[in-house]
Task: structure prediction
Amino acid sequence: MSNSLYPVVLYLEDGTLYRGLSFFKILPSFGEVVFNTGMTGYQEIISDPSYSGQMVVFTYPEIGNTGLNHKDNESNFIHIKALIARNISSVPSSWRSQFSLKDYIIQKQIPHIFGIDTRSLTKHLRSFGVKSGTLFDANNKISVNSLNLQLVSNIDLVRKVTSRITYSINSDIYKNFDKLNFIDFKLRNINLVSKKYKILLVDLGFKFNIVRKLLSLGCSICIVPATCSYQFISKYNPDGIVLSNGPGNPYLANYFVDTVKKLIKFSNIPIFGICMGHQILNMAFGISTFKLKFGHRGLNHPSGLNKYAEITSQNHGFAVNKLGFVNQDLLNLFSVKYLNLNDFTISSTFHKKLPVFSVQYHPEASPGPHDSEYLFEVFIKLIDFICNK
Result:
């Protein structure tokens, strides 16, 4: 394999420019430049549908130290538009490592740049907000004035990543799913419970680990597109509904907000929203969302209230608007359970009368932390209560 390096340029919409290197000649790539503060989890990030349309800056100075494997992907596809790093390790060290990040980047032809001052870039994004950017070969004669930097927040990324079909998964065929990257039996000693519930997982850009968590609790799962109708969901008659994580601007997924409104109005099915699902669920109750200056992306976000906090994994550029809760009627119905303790945005909401709740963070986070994974058991206990009522 060639050890040649190629000069590349990262150009931001405000004219800021960074020069670095790549392992191969890249074609021009466009996306929203965001940063992630996690020290690990790069394999999950690369394959996480929530990062669709985004160029990810890794603030940790060297990534790739523990390599990659065939088990830790969060989907079957690469979703990031580009990988931006200070240094990329080519010699991984881990008993689980099967190949290096460098080899993976080259094999999958992932647009990337390294050797730049990622601290400077991160401080720039914190000061001025996330920016659209273009990554291109420095030897290409491209005029920066000709670059068309379309705003990612204007693209319906949920419709782009959602499943085109409906399909089912259940614990009876659990053993086959390690072949599909869903389950790692060698590393996860999971005891399946005998009682099963039918869970409908709405694919807004779901991560594999949501499926793992539900399977481990003995659920059978039907995965449906975000474009599914209220009539279809009602016909399936699920015991519970999970609204998954997903990418982009929740306002552009208004077609599914309308479906959730009908579910809330005409059914008493427990609903659990995660990340994008959290935003969609709150929008269905008439609460607005807004775009954060630079988003929350990392494994170390404290979320809590009243002297209690959990360390959570977060990945989102939008948040539920606290101003929506000045309405007294909503305050009587909703409990704002946790806040993000870095900036006091809303992290979770629980309805006081209906069996619905949601969190802005990721209780299924595979790299961790695992403080909030108990929420899947809370969801199952809520179904127990409703079914045995």
In short: Residues 20 and 115 are 5 Å apart (CA to CA). The first helix runs from residue 42 to 46. DSSP finds ten helices and 19 strands in the chain. Residues 175-194 have pLDDT under 50 and may be disordered.
